[in-house]
Amino acid sequence: MTTESGFHDSVYDEDLLGGDASHWAFGTSFEDPLAGVDTTIPDGVDPEELAAYCLMLGDDALIYSHRLSEWCSRAPDLEEDIALANIALDLLGQARLLLARAAAASPAVVPAMPEGSPVPPEDALAFFRPDAQFRSTRLVEPDNGDFAVTIVRLLLFSTWRLALLERLASSRDQVLAAIAAKGVKEVTYHRDYAGRWFLTLAQGTDESRSRLLAALPPVFAFHEELFTDHPVETSVAAAGVGVAPSDVAAEVAVILEQVFSVSGVERHDVPQIGPVAGGTGRDGRHTEALSHLLAEMQSVARAHPLGVW
Amino acid sequence: MLTLEDLGVLRSVEEYDDRVVVTITPTYSGCPAMATMRDDLVHRLADAGFEAEVRVSLSPAWSSDWITPAGRESLARHGISPPGAAPTGPVGLSLLPTRRVLGCPRCGSSEVELTSEFGPTACKAMYRCTACLEPFEHVKEI
After folding, report:
1. What does the pLDDT look like over A190-244, one tens digit per residue?
2. DSSP line for A90-141
3. What's the pLDDT score for residue B1?
4. A105-124 pLDDT per residue, tens
5. Is residue A240 within 8 Å of A50, Cβ to Cβ?
6. Which helix (H) or strand (E) holds B139?
7. Rounded to whole angstroms, how far apart are CA atoms B94 and A255?
8. Which of A28, A214, A253, B18 is the 20 to 30 A CA-CA neighbour of B92?
9. Which of A30, A179, A200 to mutate to test the interface with B (most CBs of B within 10 A)?
10. How many CB atoms lie within 10 A of CB B16?
11. Is A283 exposed, middle or buried (0-12, 13-18, 19+ CB in 10 A)?
């Protein structure tokens, strides 16, 4: 913490800080996650649609990252605590790059900040948009539930996202392609982790199996929404920069079938949560859970729009 | 000493008179050490009289194969098991624990077991040596 005359002289003396106060100035100058990256938009691609699409993929990662991070210090044991926090961190990194890409594609999507605010565009998007402007799919919004619900949701989410990212790695947008190629390596670990725990819970005790089975209906109630193409997704897919989720439905089904079958769990159709007022998460129509999550996630940033961290 | 070059994070350095353009690549998307790395580069180069610009390269994505032989030796010397060859090709689902042939960086025994695929940093898995009973970290192959 700085004072007008420089650093405090108490325990934070020069020796501890190495005599160089600017060393602690994270979050200021050279923090642009896309510094030096060529963000030119490919020919024939609408910048607004590209930005909206990046927000969709970025918001999925951001909101789910926040949900998973709620397990920190509360997981069943230390290894799972660390695993879930690591997965959350990977997704947060993906979110940061995707939101930065959205802002670079169309600066108009970034909320206006007060004069002199040091908040970078990706943070403005994360912390200063109201719920209806988020484009995350509703699967990532509800509370974590117990560990079985967490594992079932992670399996569905990571299987879906991995399939999307694998195709996105050949996007005509070089930035999206690079973010996706990197994300593939990370989400592969997330899917394996969820798949192994799914099997363990299914084949574990009567209690773990019954909890796993009970977790299926609430999570799979959002299944249909994952594979329903939003007009923006259809458009960016046609332009060769995005992926239409309906295109990955078959391969996701194959992977899920492998996990269910090895685990000795039958997959039943469950009632789906349909659109609200004609829209779903991609349209900014969300569950109440998202508003509560954002209230917690955004409150500090909103209270200090001029804050330097 | 383990340098950014040893880790394969440093991709290029270009020098223009008193200005230097350094390109680095993140290991994992959310790696919180990136800010420190950029910060250190700017400060060390400023100390040496250079104005530094740090650029990010996202493609190709970082691979643990880029860790140099010297980097691997250095990791092992510090009790961290270096990565094997990174996987290539399509991504398959794996429901069994990841199998790696590796030795305990402390006692050299190959009698080791995986504790968790996730460790104290995004790039490492946790292992336990059943010979000397010490836990250790292994840099994952990506």
Report:
1. 999 999 999 999 999 999 999 999 999 999 999 999 999 999 999 999 999 999 9
2. HHHHHHHHHHHHHHHH-GGGSPP--TT----HHHHHHHSS-GGG----GGG-
3. 83
4. 999 999 999 998 889 999 99
5. no
6. strand B135-139
7. 10
8. A214
9. A30
10. 10
11. middle
By Cβ distance, the residue of B36, B57, B93 closest to A255 is B93
| pLDDT cut 70: percent of chain B above it | 100
Q: Which single residue is written with the structure tokens 């420089």?
A: A6
Half-sphere exposure of B97 (CA within 13 A, CB side): 14
Contact: B54, A30; criterion CB under 8 Å: yes
Cβ-Cβ contacts under 8 Å for A10 (sequence gap 6 or more): none
Inter-residue contact B41 to B9 (CB < 8 Å): no
Cβ contact (<8 Å) for B119 and A82? yes
Q: Which residue has the tokens 């999550």?
A: A293
Nearest C-alpha in B relative to A252? B93
Residue A2: CB partners within 8 Å, gap ≥ 6?
A21
Q: How many residues make up chain A in this entry? A: 309
Distance of alpha carbon A107 from alpha carbon B14, whole angstroms: 30
Residue A155's closest CA among A200, A207, A205? A200
**pLDDT 10s digits, A6-47:** 444 444 445 554 555 555 444 444 478 888 888 999 999 999
CA A277/CA A275 separation, integer angstroms: 6
Interface of B with A in 100-119 (CB under 8 A): 115-119
Q: Does B59 touch chain A (CB under 8 A)?
A: yes
Copy the structure tokens of residue A67. Answer: 């949900």
pLDDT (average), residues B123-127? 93
Where in chain A are the domains? 47-114+123-302
Interface A-B: count of C-beta contacts within 8 A: 124
- Beta-ladder partners of B55: B23
Burial class (CB in 10 A: 0-12, 13-18, 19+), A137: buried
For B6-65, give the DSSP string: TTT-EEEEEEETTEEEEEE--SSTT-THHHHHHHHHHHHHHHTT-EEEEEE--SSPP-GG
Assigned fold of A47-114+123-302: Ferritin (1.20.1260)
Containing B136, the helix (H) or strand (E) segment is strand B135-139
Angle among Cα A97, A101, A104 to the nearest 5 degrees reads: 140
Residues of A in contact with B38 (CB under 8 A): 30-31
